[in-house]
Specification:
The protein is mainly alpha-helical. 85% of the residues lie in helices and 0% in strands. It is rod-shaped and about 70 Å long. It starts with a helix and ends with a helix.
Length: 85
């Protein structure tokens, strides 16, 4: 049985798949960085705003809950996408 890797990797669809994989990885990395930035900065920013404007506390809590819900949704989306590939 011959090794067909050299032949199969040059089939037209393989380079297209590699380009698509690189693109999707790049997009996913940008989303992850944005999520990480928002998760790290939002508690700090909300704490400062609530310290400066105590009446903003309930809105700060609502924003924190919305960020948590967004994270939960993105995590479930990410794990379901990972299982399908």
């Amino acid at each position: 049985m011959q090794n067909r890797i050299a032949h199969d990797q040059n089939i037209l669809s393989q380079p297209e798949r590699l380009v698509a994989q690189r693109y999707l990885y790049s997009v996913a990395k940008r989303f992850l960085m944005a999520q990480l930035f928002l998760d790290l900065m939002s508690p700090i920013v909300l704490a400062v705003i609530v310290a400066l404007f105590p009446g903003f506390g309930i809105y700060g809590a609502l924003i924190a809950l919305l960020i948590f819900a967004r994270d939960f949704y993105l995590e479930s989306l990410q794990s379901s996408t990972g299982r399908n590939s």
